[in-house]
UniProtKB/TrEMBL annotation:
Pfam families: Sulfatase (PF00884). InterPro entries: Alkaline_phosphatase_core_sf, Sulfatase, Sulfatase_CS, Sulfatase_N. Belongs to the sulfatase family. Gene3D superfamilies: 3.30.1120.10, Alkaline Phosphatase, subunit A (3.40.720.10). The gene is atsA_1. Residues 52-406 form the Sulfatase N-terminal domain. Residues 544-554 have a biased composition (Basic residues). It comes from Gimesia maris. This is Arylsulfatase. The chain crosses the membrane at residues 20-38.
Length: 554
C-alpha cells in the first residue's frame, strides 16, 4: 500500500501534493462512492414513490346543492360522492374562476385567470383553435417533469387546430348551421395543438361540449373515424355513424378505469399518474343511460347526476382494487353551477335546489354561477370527515400540485394559483388566499375578499334575472356589494352603505389586472387588454327589448 501511495504522490507532485492521509481518503471515497450513489438513488426513488397519484374529476354544469354530503336538503341519492366526502375533506367555499365551461378549464390547467387569455367572454366551440398559449406551463407539463404519467379523458373544450380541406385551420366561424356546418374540415389529418401539446401523454375524449359538433371521439391527435352523417345533439353537425351521445359518459369512465389498471403497478414503483377527467355530464344533452332513467324520481337531470355519482364510484373501486387508494389524491368538483337546461321548475316542485342557498346559476356572477362542490380525498394525508372554509379557486390546482411534488413555480406560470395543501393537511390557520376573482359568461367581473363580494355589473351578468339584454338594467346600481356572512343569497346590495369597501376591492381587482397576476412575483403581461368595467357598462346601457308585434297584417 505504501509503495502505491508513494508512486501516486510522486506522479502528481508537479501539479499538487497529497499527504498520505488525504490519498487514503480519496481511495476510501472512490471505494464507497458507488454505495453512496446507490443509497442516494434509492432515497430518491423512495421519495418519488411517496408522491401521490392525482385524479381530478370535473363535472360539467353541476350545482353545489346536488350532493347530499354538501346539502342536507338534497333530494338526489349520491352515495359514492357522500362516501368520498366523508372519507376526506369538503371545501365549503370553493369557486370556479368563471361561471361557464371553457374559461374555467383554462384556469384549472394553467393556474391563470381565464380573462387574462384571449377569451374575454363566452366559450369556445368544437372547431375553435387552441386557447392555451404556446410554451405556457400547465399542470400536466409540470407534473410530467416530475416523473408523472399524464392523461386527459373526457371533454376538452379548450380548442385544438383542425385542418381544413383547402388548407389552413378551422376557427370559431368554421361552424355555421346554415352556411358552413363543419364539413370543410379534413378529419383524416392529425389534429394539431390539442391536449398532447400542453403536457398530456395521452388523450381520449371529445373536442368540446357534447352538444357541439363534430360528434367524434378523439384519441391523442386523431379523429376516431371520419364523419359521414349529420346528427343533432341540440346542434346539427358532422358525426361518425357510430357516435351516440348517450354512450360518452360510460365510454370515458371505462377508459379512465383502464388507465388506472394499466398504471397502478408503475405508480407503486415511483411513477405516479395524473388523470384529468373532465366529464360531459350532467351538461346537455341530458341523456342518462337506461339503467339510470327515472332513478331519481325527480327528472332526467337528477338521474344524470346519479350516473355521475356512479362514475365516481367506479373510479374509487378501481383504485381500491389496485391497492393504490391510500396514496391517491382524488378531487371532485364542477366547472360551474347548474344550467337552466336542467329544468329548475321540475326540481323545485320536488323541493330540490341545485344551487343550494345561493342565488343564480350557470353563466351568472352570482354565487350560484361559480360556487361549486369541491371534495378532496387522500387517505394518506387528508383526515376523514373534515371541512375547510378556506376561500378556494379552481386555479389553485397548479400551485397545489407543485407544492405536493416540491416543484418551483416560475414567475410566468400559475400567476393566480395558491396551494391549498396546508388546508388539506389541516395546518392552515389563516387565509391562504388574499382574494378570488370571478367572471361571468358576458365578461362581468367580481372580486371576493373575506366576507365581502363586489360585483362590477348590474344584474346577474349572465342568464338569470335581471338578465342583460332581456331585462332593463339602466336603473339598477352599476355595482353590487354583498356581505356574504349575513346575506349568502345576495339579496341586499349594500354598496351605498360601504363606499370604503367598494373602493378597496375595486383597487385590489384593478391591481390584479394591471400586474398580470394576483400572487407574489414579477408582473406578467395579459393576453390582450383587460377592462374590468367594460361588461358592466355594457349591461347597464342595455334597455329591455321592445316586444315584437306578432299580429299578422290583414
Amino acid at each position: 500500500m505504501q509503495t502505491v501511495i508513494a508512486r501516486y504522490q510522486f506522479e502528481l507532485k508537479p501539479r499538487t501534493t497529497f499527504s498520505i492521509p488525504s490519498v487514503l481518503s480519496l481511495i476510501m471515497t472512490a471505494a464507497f462512492l458507488p454505495l453512496f450513489l446507490f443509497s442516494q438513488n434509492t432515497a430518491h426513488a423512495s421519495e418519488k414513490a411517496n408522491d401521490p397519484n392525482i385524479i381530478y374529476i370535473l363535472a360539467d354544469d353541476m350545482g353545489y346543492g346536488d350532493i347530499r354530503a354538501l346539502n342536507p336538503e338534497c333530494k338526489i341519492a349520491t352515495p359514492h360522492l357522500d362516501q368520498l366526502a366523508h372519507g376526506g375533506m369538503i371545501f365549503t367555499d370553493a369557486h370556479s374562476s368563471s361561471s361557464v365551461c371553457t374559461p374555467t378549464r383554462y384556469g384549472v390547467l394553467t393556474g391563470r385567470y381565464n380573462w387574462r387569455s384571449r377569451l374575454k367572454s363566452g366559450v369556445l366551440w368544437g372547431l375553435s383553435r387552441r386557447l392555451i398559449e404556446p410554451d405556457r406551463e400547465t399542470v400536466p407539463s409540470m407534473l410530467k417533469e416530475h416523473g408523472y404519467y399524464t392523461a386527459c379523458v373526457g371533454k376538452w373544450h379548450l380548442g385544438m387546430d383542425w385542418s381544413l380541406k383547402q388548407g389552413g385551420f378551422a376557427t370559431e366561424q368554421s361552424y355555421n348551421k346554415k352556411t358552413n356546418p363543419g364539413w370543410d374540415v379534413d378529419y383524416s389529418k392529425p389534429i394539431q395543438n390539442g391536449p398532447n401539446s400542453v403536457g398530456f401523454d395521452y388523450f381520449f375524449g371529445i373536442s368540446a361540449s357534447l352538444d357541439m359538433p363534430p360528434y367524434v371521439y378523439i384519441e391523442n391527435d386523431r379523429s376516431q373515424g371520419i364523419p359521414t352523417v349529420t346528427k343533432a345533439f341540440f346542434r346539427d353537425g358532422p358525426a361518425h355513424k357510430d357516435f351516440e351521445a348517450i354512450d360518452v359518459l360510460p365510454r370515458i369512465t371505462d377508459k379512465t378505469v383502464q388507465i388506472i389498471d394499466e398504471h397502478a403497478a408503475a405508480s407503486k414503483e415511483g411513477k405516479p399518474f395524473f388523470i384529468y377527467f373532465p366529464l360531459n355530464a350532467p351538461h346537455t344533452p341530458i341523456l342518462p343511460t337506461p339503467e339510470w332513467q327515472g332513478k331519481s324520481g325527480i327528472n332526467a337531470y337528477c338521474d344524470f347526476v346519479m350516473q355521475v355519482d356512479d362514475t365516481v364510484g367506479q373510479v374509487m373501486q378501481a383504485l381500491k382494487k389496485q391497492g393504490i387508494h391510500e396514496n391517491t389524491l382524488v378531487i371532485f368538483t364542477a366547472d360551474n353551477g347548474c344550467s337552466p337546461a336542467a329544468n329548475f321548475k321540475e326540481m323545485t316542485d320536488k323541493d330540490h335546489q341545485p344551487s343550494y342557498q345561493f342565488r343564480g346559476h350557470k353563466a351568472d356572477i352570482y354565487e350560484g354561477g361559480h360556487r361549486v362542490p369541491f371534495i378532496a380525498n387522500w387517505p394518506a394525508r387528508i383526515k376523514a370527515g373534515t371541512h375547510s372554509d378556506q376561500l378556494t379557486c379552481l386555479t389553485d390546482l397548479f400551485a397545489t400540485a407543485a407544492d405536493i411534488v416540491g416543484a418551483k413555480v416560475p414567475d410566468d406560470a400559475g400567476e393566480d394559483s395558491v396551494s391549498i395543501l396546508p388546508a388539506m393537511e389541516g395546518t392552515a390557520h389563516t387565509p391562504l388566499r388574499e382574494a378570488a376573482v370571478h367572471h361571468s359568461i358576458r365578461g362581468a367581473f367580481s372580486i371576493r375578499k373575506d366576507h365581502w363580494k363586489l360585483e362590477l355589473c348590474p344584474g346577474s351578468g349572465g342568464w338569470s334575472f335581471p338578465k342583460p339584454g332581456k331585462d332593463n338594467l339602466s336603473e339598477l346600481p352599476a355595482i353590487q356589494l354583498y356581505d356574504l356572512n349575513h346575506d349568502a343569497g345576495e339579496q341586499k346590495n349594500v354598496q351605498a352603505e360601504h363606499p370604503e369597501v367598494v373602493k378597496e376591492l375595486t383597487t385590489l381587482l384593478q391591481s390584479y389586472a394591471d400586474r398580470g397576476r394576483s400572487t407574489p412575483g414579477k408582473p406578467q403581461p395579459n393576453t390582450g387588454e383587460v377592462d374590468i368595467f367594460k361588461a358592466g357598462k355594457s349591461a347597464q346601457s342595455m334597455k329591455k327589448p321592445a316586444k315584437k308585434n306578432t299580429k299578422k297584417k290583414s
